[in-house]
Specification:
The longest helix has 15 residues, at 214-228. The protein has helices at 17-26, 58-68, 72-81, 189-192, 194-203, 214-228; strands at residues 2-6, 31-35, 50-53, 84-88, 98-100, 106-108, 116-119, 125-133, 136-144, 146-149, 158-162, 172-173, 175-177, 180-183. The strands form three sheets. Strands 2-1-3-4-14-13 form a six-stranded mixed sheet. Strands 6-5-7-10 form a four-stranded mixed sheet, with no helix packed on it. It has a four-stranded antiparallel sheet with strand order 9-8-11-12, covered by helices on one side. The mean pLDDT is 94. By secondary structure, the protein is α/β, with parallel strands linked by helices. The protein is built from six helices and 14 strands.
Length: 235
Amino acid sequence: MKIEILYPEICCLFGEKANMRYFEMCLPDAEFIKTPVSQMPLFLTEDVDMVYFGSCSESNQEKILSRLKGHEERINELINKGVIFLMTGNTFEIMGNFIKDSDGKKIEGLGIFDFYSERTIPERHNSLVLGEYNGMKLVGSISRFSHSYGIKHEDGFIDVKKGYGSCKDSKNEGIRRNNLFGTYLLGPFLVLNPDFTKYLMTLLGVENPTLAFENEIYKAYCVRLKEFESDIKFN
């Protein structure tokens, strides 16, 4: 099992490195490849089972795009094959048609999905989020300088019950196609959502997956879920 962590030195805002640190504990026999920003992604030339992109700054978003432009066909091929992509924070925005900067400049995206994003710098948007996917209740938070618009319902990831979707007027959050999951939710997402972490492990072919610190992780999840389902103010 081969899992690529893309550009961990720049895709590391909001403690998102903990997603793969925790996943390594859950999958001690898997091979984790940490690709530095000085190198092209391994998944462009070799078969991998999963690719992880963590949250990054807006300038580094453009740096990642510069590495991936021209490889859209390969990325589509992997998505269609069912390779897992997990993109947390703002990184999934690169999969859209374009990102509109605060000064009006349009940054061309990969066009893998039909949507666009708009930056709102210096206005930051913070919220807790409670949602559902595939029968699982998901929790997390957002802290972002952008919104994404035009995501089709069938391309959405999380059905939002409380908090923001991909934009303030949407109850769809993130993007999904086959085993590509992109979400603005931070947390770190895998630590906060044990059911989804187990779900990813089953997609990787793990039978009867067991989580690291499973009892503690589920206790914390149950406490957080109870709080999120209460009447606390989200934004």
